UniProtKB/TrEMBL annotation:
It is found in: Cell membrane; Cytoplasm, Cell cortex; Cytoplasm, Cytoskeleton; Lysosome. InterPro entries: AH/BAR_dom_sf, F_BAR_dom, FCH_dom, HR1_CIP4_FNBP1L, HR1_rho-bd, HR1_TOCA, SH3-like_dom_sf, SH3_domain. This is Thyroid hormone receptor interactor 10a. Its main location: membrane. It comes from Salmo trutta (Brown trout).
């Protein structure tokens, strides 16, 4: 810290500065600018014009914000994919989904820019415009009072000037009359009557002059009093009022300046969250998962074409009796069959493929895609079947309540709904078995086997306990909807039994871990088949993610379940 030039007198300097500040604070327009009416008039007018200019500036700023927000919304709308288009179907890839997240964040960002414009218009433009009108009226009133005081003083001054001129004129006349009377009195030829008349005229003029003098003195006293009142009381009071008005204007304008910044600062946290969302969208992109998703979506499951056989025409071998290795692979519904290619021609990777005929069992799709579509169809039917089974159980309970309490309702009124639900269950069960057999034929993956077995047991349980209008039970139906004789085994039950055996064998054999994973986030594991997980917990990986976003893990105590792949860091054993 630098030492002042004269440290000994520093406190004295501070006292002097303090006194100067006090004097500065005591300064006012009425005292120090008593003779600067025109300056005060121009200054206050300039201040009001500045408020108008600032309001106009903020309005233009709000227009810019609104146009910016509108352009942002139009931009996000332009790049948002339409429903059913190809881009929407590609949203399963993280880089496409992240781009959609960025568009959503920018749309929210545009909303915040609109909020800035709205708040600036309401809190600055409208408020200052209203306050400006009040200031204009107040200034007009003060200037009108000053003008009236000025006119009153000028009127008094005119009266003073008139009495002064009259006094001056009458005093000259009285002086002339006195000189004439003295001259007449000394004239030897003047008669006594002339002398008396001249003396009377002089006395009269002198008396009038004295009255004018007194009137002039009174007018002068009046004017001096009014002038003192004008310069020391009336005008200082008006000037101080104008000063107070101008200081309030400056203070209000300063608040408007602060609001200009605060309005945007208040939405900065939300804008920051929007930008954080954009950053998060970028970090959520996982190139490996996108590649796996593409494989899962378009993997055909076909084997690569084998070598072509050598056709020796020198030995007289008929070309038609020979076939390419593609025709001898023995793979059912290979790429050539599905695409309608000539088996005698090689399969070209970049050739243009014709659109195959769609079939109910998805046989027109490659094996891998067929399994996925059948699995998806089977899951949808399973959900509908579970819904119908639950509805049937509810109807049966309601019917039982009606039978025990007839006053609550007629049990017979529920028969149509029960019959319709029974038919729906049998129809869905038939479809379920049909797609189940097709999936078995295609060689399904057993990750949803347990849930389908549960649905099957519920459907079978419902079928054996559903009632018709007379309260009798329905006979069991076969998958095609026909009645099956008692003791005749259902073909679908054999399929389910086979799956049950496979699942029991899978439970008996404990799969060896293929790696480890560390939890990056907490996972509650509330859904069936999932397992809870705490951040930092180390688990054994039993089954890799098959493209559906779930990984099967095992704890040290033997508990197994599925967790989201994106919630863990996986390290597989080599």
């Amino acid at each position: 810290m630098r030492r002042p030039p004269n440290w000994d007198n520093f406190e004295e300097v501070l006292c002097i500065q303090g006194s100067a500040d006090k004097k500065t604070l005591n300064m006012d327009w009425g005292t120090d600018l008593w003779d600067q009416y025109d300056i005060i008039d121009k200054h206050t007018q300039s201040g009001l014009e500045l408020v108008e200019k600032y309001v106009k500036f903020v309005k233009e700023r709000t227009e810019i914000e609104q146009n910016y927000a509108k352009q942002l919304r139009n931009l996000t709308k332009k790049y948002n994919p339409k429903r059913g288009c190809k881009e929407e179907q590609e949203c399963r890839f993280s880089n496409h989904q992240s781009f959609l997240d960025i568009l959503n964040e920018m749309n929210d960002y545009a909303g915040q820019r609109e909020l800035i414009a709205e708040n600036m218009m309401m809190n600055i433009c409208i408020e200052l415009t209203k306050y400006l009108q009040e200031l204009k009226m107040e200034r007009k009133t003060h200037l009108s009072e000053a003008k009236k005081a000025q006119q009153s003083l000028e009127s008094t001054y005119k009266q003073l000037d008139s009495s002064k001129k009259r006094f001056e004129r009458e005093w000259r006349e009285a002086d002339k009359a006195a000189q004439y009377a003295e001259k007449t009195d000394q004239d030897i030829n003047a008669t006594k009557a002339d002398v008396e008349k001249a003396k009377q005229q002089a006395n009269m003029r002198t008396h009038i002059a004295e009255e004018c003098k007194n009137d002039y003195a009174a007018q002068l006293q009046k004017y001096n009093k009014e002038q003192s009142q004008f310069y020391f009381s009336d005008m200082p009071l008006i000037f101080n009022k104008l000063q107070d008005m101008d200081e309030r204007r400056v203070r209000k304008l300063a608040q408007g300046y602060v609001l200009f910044s605060d309005t945007e600062r208040h939405v900065m946290p939300i804008i920051g969250k929007c930008l954080e969302g954009v950053t998060k969208a970028g970090t959520n992109v996982n190139e490996r998962n996108d590649s796996i998703a593409l494989i899962e979506q378009y993997k055909s499951g076909f084997e690569r074409p084998g070598d072509l056989d050598f056709e020796d025409y020198s030995q007289g071998i008929n070309r038609a009796s020979s076939d390419s290795s593609l025709g001898t692979l023995g793979t059912p519904k290979g790429p050539l069959e599905l695409l309608g290619k000539n088996r005698s021609k090689p399969f070209w990777l970049f050739s243009k493929k014709s659109k195959p005929t769609v079939t109910e069992d998805f046989g027109h799709l490659p094996p891998e895609q067929r399994r996925k579509r059948l699995q998806q169809k089977l899951d949808d039917i399973g959900k509908e079947l579970q819904k119908e089974v639950d509805q049937s159980a509810a109807l049966e309970k309601m019917k039982d309540v009606y039978e025990k309490n007839p006053q609550m309702g007629d049990p017979a009124s529920l028969s149509p709904q029960i019959n319709q639900t029974a038919q729906n269950v049998e129809r869905l069960r038939g479809e379920f078995n049909k797609y189940e057999s097709w999936l078995t034929e295609a060689g399904r993956r057993g990750d949803s086997m347990l849930r389908r077995d549960t649905l099957r047991e519920d459907a079978l349980s419902y079928s054996s306990h559903s009632f018709n209008n007379n309260g009798s039970t329905h006979e069991p139906y076969s998958p095609d909807g026909t009645h099956s004789e008692e003791g005749t085994p259902d073909p679908s039950q054999a399929i389910y039994a086979e799956f049950d055996d496979d699942f029991e064998e899978e439970e008996e054999e404990l799969v060896a871990p293929i790696g480890q994973c560390t939890a990056m986030y907490n996972f509650p594991g509330a859904s069936e088949g999932t397992i809870t997980m705490q951040e930092g917990e180390v688990l054994s990986v039993v089954e890799e993610d098959k493209g559906d976003g779930w990984t099967r893990v095992r704890r040290a105590n033997g508990n197994e379940g599925y967790i989201p792949t994106s919630y863990v860091s996986i390290s597989l054993s080599k």
